[in-house]
Design a protein that fits this description.
Helix content is 0%, strand content 59%. By secondary structure, it is mainly beta. The N terminus is likely disordered.
């Protein structure tokens, strides 16, 4: 997914062939973790104030990070 702008009531889906192996962590611009969950399903609900966040999805040694902007 891309770093688009979203509303504060955000729900997104992470697709993978081996669901349940991923960990999702979300950080604010100060680097503080504001969300962390080991995925049981591919859907995440994230409701936080407007701002810039960084979403990290990890599976084993593979790590993907993406900027997230919420208006």
């Amino acid at each position: 997914w891309s770093s688009d702008v979203y509303s504060s009531d955000l729900k997104f889906v992470i697709r993978n062939n081996n669901p349940g192996d991923e960990t999702v962590r979300i950080f604010d611009t100060l680097g503080q973790e504001v969300y962390s969950e080991k995925l049981k399903s591919g859907t995440i609900s994230f409701m936080h104030p407007s701002g810039v966040y960084y979403v990290e999805v990890s599976e084993g040694e593979n790590v993907f990070m993406q900027k997230l902007v919420i208006e």
